[in-house]
């Protein structure tokens, strides 16, 4: 049996332990099941108006992987390619929700993903990041937030004169001199390229870093699917000055797919765990994130550690565009399943179907053998 980690990217539990705890191995095959929601949502969202000729030849994105750049000698190659992105492929809760074309990042020989791969390194190390655009169709760059670097490595073509055209490669030297959780993205025609999926997390562990019992990376993003449909050659017109998001994702997925243990990003915990969640906003709207039945502290913002005297217990934190909030809490609640979601009601919908969109959950391992968890896995399309 595959013993890879499941849950949100980070330190989840093994698939073996998940099957043991839930008893769901090989028992579900209900990706098309129904769930609470509005059956007319597909027509209202317009996300599924694709034809085989427009999308069938594209690869489908995978969940983002964590790349330990230190283990690779401080070197990583990033490239981008068009892909189809299934935010929620099932019919439950207003699905399916699809972005018929995204521009996905991949690291080295890995799979393309939206968000892009999580690049993880250690304070004091330099990263050599090569943007490989040899197979590309349009110019790109890479811009890394927070860290101090040489002028020519800033990734902004307007001010550095450097862009990576189709057929070219370019290597950026990115010093890991600001510990914390950061963002990277394409900075060429940013309103379009970032909104097509060219963004990811850049994590710099401080020297002597002590991980929590459970540690997860979570990226928030809202999408105006007209852009994705336009880029797929469909009948849609997009204007960034009139941006109107209709798709809301956590690590690229919309609820209930967010709860899928392998394709989604549930926050899997065991009672007594210390839990650390790195929240990153890859979009252009604020997202007030709320966790049910737990009080957390925001221990870092945008790579800056918050002094203990300034921290306080809270249950909602609003993450601004490009913002990064690191939360810590104890898994001390009655073992169960507790929502983690944006508190803007239209952000937790798939079209007019509620709930959906930017919703995930803190899932206690101890609650995985319950009937309600099995029902949630059916909604999420988990096939065992």
TrEMBL record:
Domain of life: Archaea
Domain Plastocyanin-like stretches: 113-207, 244-353
Region feature Disordered, mapped onto this chain: 35-65
Family annotation (InterPro entries): Cu-oxidase-like_N, Cu-oxidase_C, Cu-oxidase_fam, Cupredoxin, TAT_signal, TAT_signal_bac_arc
GO terms for MF: copper ion binding; oxidoreductase activity
Keyword vocabulary terms for this entry: Copper, Metal-binding, Oxidoreductase
Record bears the keyword Ion transport: no
Pfam hit, one: Cu-oxidase_2
Extent of Polar residues compositional bias: 40-60
Protein name: Multicopper oxidase domain-containing protein
